[in-house]
Amino acid sequence: MNPYIRTLFIVVTFVLLSGEAFAQKIVNKQLPNGLEIIVIPNSNVPLVTIEICVKNGAFTETPALNGLSHLYEHMFFKGNEKFPDQESYMKKVRQLGMEFNGTTSVERVNYFYTMPSSNLRSGLEFMLAAISTPKFDANEFEKEKKVVLGEVDRNESNPYYWLGQSTDAFLWHAYPSRKDSLGDRKTIIGATIEQMKKMKETYYVPNNSALVIAGDVDPTTAFGLASEIFSSWKRGEDPFLAHPVLKHPALPKNQFSIVKKDVKMPTFQMSWHGPSVTDDPKATFAADVLSYILQQPTSKFYKSLIENGLTLGAGISYYTQKTTGPISVFSQMKPDKLKTSIPLIRKELKKLTDPDYYTDAQLNAAKKILAIEDLYSREKTSTYAQTVSFWWATAGLDYYRNYIKNLRSVTREDINNYVNKYINGKFFVASLLISEKHANELGITLADFQKRVESVEN
């Protein structure tokens, strides 16, 4: 046996036998105020990461609020009742030897500090002050608006941002703001401190949040400190009773768009409404496995489209979400291959349920290697904490704890059911990013684009 294959076999066996046991190192309890405490012990280095995760983000935003979750994230690292200004806040950051950051996505906003584990108590107290008593200083607020607008500027300078915006306008036609975590320029400019306070009152409550403590910590000690320090944080109303999560309505028909930007190579994208992890969790595992199979150089999808020179790159992806996860096929090609590539990509997609489109060996390898990749993702505790909080917010800890086990159970029938339920014969959004020059040279119009995409419908 090849030494590499033998090593891979050993690693795979380890994953299959102990992957679920490894996941049980995540331990959690809930405080009486509703705050979920999640502890991930790892004593390899004397560091600890403290993270607060809140079920907030684009999915809570009406058009009038689009981008305010992101703006709130920026205001988190400012003054509060205990550290009343930016100078005192940053002085404490330096005293604790802390690195910090935050992110805003569709279904989660999170804030995280990493510091020497000897500073755990002080770090928890620092986090409580930041999450529960922000001051929203007017001068700092105006400064952070400019910072967020700078992020918007950078995104708008990227042609692929506009491809995504054009696709999402059709894909999430009823509620596009609820999938746009960056935000709308005009809304950000017009944001008020009162809106920040309302967001805090609504979503920044312990019963809508999780506290992750990861690294060189003893779970018993971590739970005791968290309970002592965070029990004073007062429970709020369930935010989703007053502001229910809206279900994205199905696409009414196929939609098409052409985005003309100065790019060297055209990019073709097709997107569908995929499964919600809440409504159809089984399909999400099938989606992950199929996506991995098709990305491999040994797959028929890869050989037909990339190895044969029709496209420069092609793949299919699914993004796990509670509020309908998108499925996307993304391909890039030389301009002279565009007209022939699009129908052939469509034809390849129609073969996904063919019994010989992938082998049992490819199916089993995909499941095993995905399990290995999940294991490797846990290597750095500070980033692993963010992975765990994402799954807590989007799918729940039980979904993640059983992720490897459910991957292993995916069958060819599960994949076929996923493809037939969400891709084959389903309405889609097809988008093309192309330069004005190439569009003119090739005679690409919206009508022509639609015709080529739909030429293999039946």
What does this entry look like structurally?
By secondary structure, the chain is α+β, with helices and mostly antiparallel strands. The chain is built from 20 helices and eleven strands. It has two domains: 222 residues, 2-Layer Sandwich (Cytochrome Bc1 Complex, Chain A, domain 1), CATH 3.30.830.10; 200 residues, Cytochrome Bc1 Complex, Chain A, domain 1, CATH 3.30.830.10. The protein has a six-stranded mixed beta sheet, with helices on both faces. It has a five-stranded mixed beta sheet with strand order 7-11-8-10-9, sandwiched between helices. α1 packs across α14 and α11 crosses α18. 40% of the residues are buried. The N terminus is likely disordered.
Short summary:
With 458 residues, this protein is α+β, with helices and mostly antiparallel strands. Helices cover 48% and strands 16% of the residues. It folds into two domains: 222 residues, Cytochrome Bc1 Complex, Chain A, domain 1; 200 residues, Metalloenzyme, LuxS/M16 peptidase-like (Cytochrome Bc1 Complex, Chain A, domain 1).
Parts with pLDDT < 50 across at least 5 consecutive residues = 1-24
Question: Overall 3D geometry?
Answer: globular
Determine Rg (CA atoms, Å).
Answer: 24 Å
Spatial strand sequence of the major β-sheet:
1-2-6-3-5-4
